[in-house]
Design goal:
Elements: H1 16-29, H2 33-74
């Protein structure tokens, strides 16, 4: 059983033309303003909650990838410095690294 405290009265301004159009359509559909607004708000809250969860999952994924990349960069092997006096043929350079 619902108590009177389970509800909250919300008032807001709406342009007259929009209110008139809304009332005409709601009268045709035999629907109240309250039921329409509750339905619309409920659908919006569900959609936004889903979007926030998806964003949270996406943010978690991006953070995980960034952390993995940071670990890889921290453990990147260092290359030996080549002396300039070494000839090209003496260096340990692969064909791919030469371009």
């Amino acid at each position: 059983m619902r108590m009177d405290t389970d509800y909250k009265l919300i008032n807001f301004n709406i342009p007259l033309y929009l209110s008139n159009n809304l009332d005409s359509i709601l009268g045709y559909k035999n629907m109240s303003r309250t039921s329409l607004l509750n339905l619309m708000i409920s659908e919006w809250v569900r959609a936004e909650t889903d979007n926030m969860e998806k964003d949270g999952l996406l943010n978690d994924l991006v953070t995980t990838i960034q952390n993995k990349n940071k670990v890889r960069e921290d453990h990147k092997p260092t290359k030996k410095k080549q002396h300039q006096s070494d000839g090209w043929f003496q260096r340990n350079v692969s064909w791919e690294d030469s371009y």
